[in-house]
Amino acid sequence: MNGGRASLPVRIASIAVLVLLAGCRVAPPAAPAHVFAHGAVAADHPAASEAGAEVLRLGGNAVDAAVATSFCLSVVRPYSCGIGGGGFMVIHVPAAADGRPSRQVAINYRETAPGAVGPDAFVGRAADASRIGAHAVGVPGSVAGLLYALEHFGTLDRETVLAPAIRVAEEGFVIDAHYVAAVKAVGTKIDEDPRRLDDAGYVWRELCHAGDVRPGDRLTNPRQARALRLIARDGAFAFYRGPIADAIVDVMKRRGGPITAADLAGYRVDVTAPLRGRWSDYEVVAMPPPSSGGITMLQILGILDRLDVDAATTDHNDTEYVHLLAEAMKHAFADRSRWLADPAFVDVPTGDLLAAEYLDARAAAISRTSTGAPMDYGTGTDHLEDGGTSHFSVVDRTGMAVACTETINLRFGSLLGVPGFGFALNNEMDDFTTIPGAANAFGLRQSDRNLPEPGKRPLSSMSPTIVLRDDVPVIVAGASGGPRIITGTLQTILNCLWYDMPPHVAVEVPRFHHQWMPDRVYFDERWADTGVIDDVAGIGHETARRVSVGEVQLILVDDAGVHAASDTRKGGVPAGY
Ligand code: GLY
Known about the structure:
It contains 18 helices and 19 strands. The strands form four sheets. Strands 1-18-17-13-12-9-8 form a seven-stranded antiparallel sheet. A seven-stranded antiparallel sheet has the order 7-4-3-11-10-2-19, with helices on one face. Helix 3 runs parallel beside helix 5 and helix 12 crosses helix 16. The structure holds glycine. The site of glycine has 9 residues, from loops. Glycine binds next to loops.
């Protein structure tokens, strides 16, 4: 960071952020600009950004830094992501001096359904069975995915990249309002039904300190430090076959859950080509299914292109911009609902959904003065979609870039912890269609294509994205926030590339969201211009407020340096050198 020596562009950007934020309904903190000369990490907790930056300063590359950041997030944001969860990583490897061309790869380490789980796994079970307790848990993929990335794309050893996370777990980290809110949410769930303590007791005591937490408190997690030391020493073996696997299987046996030793030993990372799309002068490199993020963002961009929406024709966040973007979102989320699922199990018509003629037709169906009924969007369907997620972006001095989004689904996942090892197990099973026709925790309805099957990965909204120009990363972005990940990430990219906002402004300004069903435009609590909300309602949209539309971490690279922004909505601060 350029510390007190703010350059002219940085000072101008800081003035711009104050002007742009001045009218917000809830005044956000004026985020400072962070510009680094060599490389940066934008994570949603300062200690995690610093863990990655420490590894960059040691000479590690972007993947080394990403792995260090992720393991540290497992400690400091244990309700968002961690070794009990899964994720997606998109990597850009720059062209090498020896003539090897650049390449991009997508690493899918999403959780899988256990072998004993079928399409009717949740039929006849308690209404919260896919959200709380042992049946909610998918086989975790994070440790396998991170160690795969390190082994194939990193340069440093496990001990070195895990060292910052272990140190933070042992020496402690300061918790913020976001952590305390997550603890309160668990307390509320337990108050609603004290029997939930049978599942949640360990997480409530070990990670929530029985609710006795305040912003500024310093927490340690020596038990997770023990797990991380085992992983540093023995690699994936420790988690999938060794003592941590034994502890997971033991929890499953005690709580009647389906994950077996064979499920853990059989977990495999899926390495695949990212989804690509041309957009203006850029190439968008995004996550393919089972993420819905890439297809949904590319559909929205394609429709906006056809409607001639851009900075030359539309003011940022004016009524026309909100209406047309919301209409494009409605089409794309309708298709998400009907068509998207794990391509290893069902045929996902990616090419058809992104075909020029198809997007022409969707754009032509949009009225500039009215909105239609939900059934008129996408290919026509009768369905819908999906918190506890964390995104970080990394760029190193060579131009290598990593966009990584990880999750344990809802806050503290299934609330089921792994005694002895200080972490919570995900509740990713709720991202499947658990009961046909019913919405999941994010209000998303999804099709039968997304029913659980042994080894299948649930549909996700996680949208790690790299935008290239002339084969060089200009933006590395993504978000947390369920379906708002997609719309929040996309709007922030548009804020930078269309509206020329510096990243710390682009991330902080208000956003809106439409996910087809509920058929409603959501404005985040920072949205000040109630006139626009009234006008959008006048066009026929139902409108509502919500706390946020995703929490975005974004890096922009230009001639002035590496500009990193972490969303103050979640208390993030970037780091670099
Ligand atoms: N668990 C949130 C997502 O994957 O979309």
